[in-house]
Amino acid sequence: MNPFYNAMTFLMKLALLLVAKWQGKGREHVPPRGPIIIVSNHLSMIDPPLLAASIPHPIVYMAKEELSHHPYLGWAVGAYGAFTVKWERVDRQAMRRALGMLKQGKVLGLFLEGSRSRKGQMRHAHPGTALIALQSGAAILPVGITGSERIQSLRHVFSSTHTTVNIGVPFQLEPAEGRMDREELTKATELIMRRIAELLPPDYQGVYRSPAVARAS
Q1: Looking at CB atoms within 10 Å, which of 71, 78, 90, 137 has the fewest?
Q2: Are 84 and 94 in contact (CB under 8 A)?
Q3: Whole-prediction pTM value?
Q4: How far is CA 51 from the centre of its chain?
């Protein structure tokens, strides 16, 4: 992995260990090797390095294309080893790159919502991740992040913010053969997002909140 990734991961771990009120749960669920697709809700720009500090594998992230043009974050996308994707449509080039990395046994980090949730609640996901999972048959590792919505810059890592990274049990989707229709992708995406939602408090679950929980509240 590149030096920038290693340095950022080291600094994040150091900050978490020394001063941040951070809690990691479920590390025993992380498979010992790839290929793995890490899927998570997305609350803050700090989420990628937070995941990197919490999971003992180098992670290659798929980032939305707009970030590569950002005046401050654009350089970090490439330096961190991420590659971009056009979320508004099926980006076949990005899909092929993701599948190629998984064939090499790498760990892929994906935020299915495509961008940060400003309100901290889960939103409808893009189907690209389900397509990658169905075509690759890779293990899917769900992660629920809470508290990072209050970290909007690196200096907030050293604040009194409580942040939790909750790692769930990995699962797989049945590998698909041939062309998949929209209904199959929708069902697979829903399943992935529900697994993430199960790792979050009800207030974070948003559109994937369980009907039973909603009625109880």
Answers
A1: 71
A2: yes
A3: 0.86
A4: 8
pLDDT tens for residues 27-79? 999 999 999 999 999 998 888 888 988 999 999 988 766 655 555 555 566 66
Residue that has been written with the tokens 């169905």 in this structure:
134
CA–CA dist 128, 200 (Å, integer): 22
Residues 6+ apart with CB under 8 A from 161: 20, 21, 147, 148, 150, 151
> Taking the domains of the chain in order of start, what are their residue ranges?
3-216
Pairwise CA distance, residues 65 & 72, whole Å: 14
Query: Into which CATH architecture does domain 3-216 fall?
Result: 3-Layer(aba) Sandwich (3.40)
Give me the sign of the Cα torsion angle 43, 22, 199, 210. negative
